[in-house]
């Protein structure tokens, strides 16, 4: 899937002029914000849990090598296999090798953002293996050849009429008389088709919300149960996870789980929370014959010890984008990357480079809502500022922006000159807008005045008023 983060501005313009998308984006605030607030209010210890979770993940990142080694030892002891992948390319090759060894022609997949990150589906298809997404949202966007527009609700940019159109296009067995106008009917149709694919698949691939060093377990959190079928019905279960998913103990995992669903969907807990440890044992009624874990770095190690290390605490709840006014305006696809919203504005430059993702850290009002609702207390605005600084230092920002900031910095370093210049500017702008108390056009500010009026300054500057009143 082509990523278009360098074209964020063009993508945003299209999104703002898409009536259907704008209608669908209204569901983000309605469906997530109020529910998260209610769930948070119903749990008095919510803030204490945030502090505890932040401490756990910070400790893990400081000792990541030790916990990864402990996890590998536990997985091996349970009969599983751990594979290490430094890059997306290595991860894809490892997964392909596992599938070919199992003679797989079809694989089922649970919802996994890391598999989107490494572009796994396209790679498997090019090598003769059909991947089938089993999460309803992921299945829908797979039919449309799109990438997710939200990390927990991949198809939130669509309405049910669009989904019905896609089902009728792909599910050619559907009679015209079949009523698919209600969401339940669409769900039933998807379930009927996917159930056949579960039994046909030789390999099941899932992500992992957490990896537990104490037991060697992988944990997935879902609301549909598709993840359970994916990992138990195939001959082989492949867990694909990035290295920062490690937590030390089952107790640590339980504490963070209390935050995850409340922050993501406003639920106390997701419908299914599934722990998997190794392949099927003789006494087990079902399960895979082989259990593989592919641990992916893909740029994470470079973030350790940097200004962006805190981003590795992220548990992919989506709360930051649910509360972001920029995401509400343009949706996920405008970001042109696997990870949209504030967390994507920090993570994408870390993975792809600021030279191709520079627009994303700038796509923020710095209102701070993302940090205030993040269950792991990740300072997202601070890290976006760090990326802006790097973009400026490397002369990657537009020339007009660099020169404008340079001129402002010249005056800002000289307070007396700054006060004099701002005073002159206030008087000049005040006279230009004296008639209507507004400026409908302004040289060098056409990007603003083309869409809105600029209020004309009235009176003196704040600093001048402050000194005058302080003296009085």
From TrEMBL:
One BP term from GO: lactate metabolic process
Keywords linked to the UniProt accession: 4Fe-4S, Electron transport, Iron, Iron-sulfur, Metal-binding, Repeat, Transport
GO MF, one annotated term: 4 iron, 4 sulfur cluster binding
A Pfam family it matches: Fer4_8
Domain 4Fe-4S ferredoxin-type: 305-335
Listed PROSITE patterns: 4FE4S_FER_1, 4FE4S_FER_2
InterPro entries associated with the record: 4Fe4S_Fe-S-bd, 4Fe4S_Fe_S_CS, FTHF_cligase-like_sf, Helical_ferredxn, LUD_dom, LutB/LldF, NagB/RpiA_transferase-like
SUPFAM superfamilies hit by this protein: alpha-helical ferredoxin (SSF46548), NagB/RpiA/CoA transferase-like (SSF100950)
PANTHER family linked: LACTATE UTILIZATION PROTEIN B
Protein name (Swiss-Prot/TrEMBL): L-lactate dehydrogenase complex protein LldF
Lineage, opening ranks: Bacteria, Pseudomonadati, Pseudomonadota, Alphaproteobacteria, Hyphomicrobiales
């Amino acid at each position: 899937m082509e990523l278009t983060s360098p074209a964020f501005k063009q993508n945003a313009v299209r999104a703002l002029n898409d009536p259907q998308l704008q209608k669908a984006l209204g569901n983000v605030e309605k469906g997530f914000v109020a529910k998260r607030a209610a769930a948070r209010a119903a749990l008095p210890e919510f803030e204490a849990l945030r502090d505890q979770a932040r401490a756990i993940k910070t400790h893990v990142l400081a000792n990541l090598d030790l916990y990864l080694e402990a996890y590998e030892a536990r997985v091996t002891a349970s009969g599983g296999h751990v594979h290490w992948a430094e890059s997306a390319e290595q991860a894809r090759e490892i997964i392909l090798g596992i599938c070919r060894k199992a003679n797989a022609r079809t694989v089922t997949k649970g919802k996994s953002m890391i598999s989107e990150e490494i572009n796994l589906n396209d790679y498997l298809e090019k090598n003769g293996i059909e991947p089938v997404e089993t999460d309803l949202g992921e299945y829908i966007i797979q039919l449309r050849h799109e990438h997710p527009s939200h990390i927990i609700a991949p198809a939130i940019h669509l309405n049910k009429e669009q989904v019905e159109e896609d089902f009728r296009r792909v599910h050619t067995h559907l009679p015209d008389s079949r009523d698919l106008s209600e969401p339940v009917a669409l769900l039933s149709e998807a379930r009927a088709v996917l159930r056949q694919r579960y039994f046909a698949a030789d390999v099941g691939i899932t992500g992992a919300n957490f990896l537990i060093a104490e037991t060697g377990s992988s944990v997935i959190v879902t609301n549909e149960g598709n993840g359970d079928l994916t990992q138990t019905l195939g001959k082989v279960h492949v867990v694909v996870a990035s290295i920062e998913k490690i937590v030390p103990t089952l107790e640590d995992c339980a504490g963070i789980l209390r935050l995850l669903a409340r922050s993501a969907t406003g639920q106390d807990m997701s419908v299914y929370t599934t722990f998997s440890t190794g392949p099927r044992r003789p006494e087990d009624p079902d399960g895979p014959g082989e259990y593989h874990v592919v641990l992916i770095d893909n740029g994470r190690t470079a973030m350790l010890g940097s200004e962006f290390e805190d981003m590795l605490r992220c548990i992919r709840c989506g709360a930051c984008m649910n509360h972001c006014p920029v995401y509400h305006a343009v949706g996920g696809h405008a970001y042109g990357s696997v990870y949209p919203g504030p967390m994507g504005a920090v993570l994408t430059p870390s993975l792809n480079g600021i030279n191709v993702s520079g627009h994303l850290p700038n796509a923020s009002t710095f209102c701070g809502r993302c940090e205030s609702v993040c269950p792991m207390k990740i300072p997202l605005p601070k890290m976006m500022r760090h990326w802006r600084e790097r973009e400026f230092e490397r002369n990657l920002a537009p020339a007009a922006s660099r020169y404008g900031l340079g001129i402002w910095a010249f005056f800002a370093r000289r307070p007396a000159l700054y006060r004099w210049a701002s005073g002159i500017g206030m008087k000049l702008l005040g006279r230009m807008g004296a008639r209507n108390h507004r400026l409908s056009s302004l040289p060098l500010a056409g990007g603003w005045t083309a869409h809105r009026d600029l209020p004309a300054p009235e009176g003196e500057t704040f600093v001048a008023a402050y000194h005058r009143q302080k003296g009085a």
